[in-house]
Amino acid sequence: MKKGPKLALAAVLTVVAIVGVFAADKPKSKDVQRREMKKLDWFVGRWKGAGWIQMGPQGKHEFTQTETIESKLDGLVLVIEGLGKAKEDGSTVHSALAFVSYDPRVNKFRWHAFTPEGQIDTEAKVGADTLEWTLQIPQRGQMRYTITRNEKASGLRSAR
């Protein structure tokens, strides 16, 4: 066999071996992601409730909030669509689309959301019965959002 074909064969085998090593690593990473994301299985469903917001001198405004949460990509991502409507006139007071995932490289959950005002990318903290994320809003300061599961809320979830 000539030297050229031997060298080419060696190069191909090296590439195949390297790809095999990286491919063998991926299921472990995906398994970790899925295991961590299972902590949010209780959150999947369609949720509806009442809320209020008060910002400055405008006073308190009540709204109805609907959240639709779906698990996607075999459990790797939660997709959350939220819509809040004012009780006074039915106008939209909140509209957002968010993605929650687990990043095994840094061992943290990520919250990435889109709203009419822009994008939010922050860490999400997950407890046994909580999901929390915090962000800085210019001219408003730090905002923290916490969702807590309780016995009352468990009846609100729709069938999957």
Textual characterization of the structure:
The protein is an alpha+beta fold and 160 residues long. The chain has a single domain (39-155), classed as Calycin beta-barrel core domain (Lipocalin, Beta Barrel), CATH 2.40.128.20. It is built from one helix and eight strands, in the order H-E-E-E-E-E-E-E-E. The chain has one helix spanning 3-37; strands at 45-54, 60-72, 77-86, 92-103, 108-115, 118-126, 130-137, 141-148. The protein has an eight-stranded antiparallel β-sheet with strand order 1-2-3-4-5-6-7-8. Strand 5 (108-115) and strand 6 form a beta hairpin. The longest helix has 35 residues, at 3-37. It is elongated and about 80 Å long. The termini are far apart. The relative contact order is 0.13.
Which tags fit this structure?
22% helix, Lipocalin, 160 residues, alpha+beta, disordered C terminus
Number of helices: 1
How far apart the termini lie comes to: 62 Å
CATH fold annotation: Lipocalin
* Number of beta-strand segments: 8
Seen as an oligomer or otherwise, the chain set is single chain
Q: If you average the pLDDT, what whole number results?
A: 79
SSE arrangement, N to C: HEEEEEEEE
CATH superfamily grouping? Calycin beta-barrel core domain
Strand order of the largest sheet: 1-2-3-4-5-6-7-8
CATH class: Mainly Beta
Outline the low-pLDDT stretches: 154-160
- SS-derived structural category: alpha+beta
Write a compact overview of the structure shown.
The chain is an alpha+beta fold. Helix content is 22%, strand content 49%.
Task: Describe the secondary structure blueprint for this structure.
Elements: H1 3-37, E1 45-54, E2 60-72, E3 77-86, E4 92-103, E5 108-115, E6 118-126, E7 130-137, E8 141-148
Antiparallel strand pairs: 1-2, 2-3, 3-4, 4-5, 5-6, 6-7, 7-8
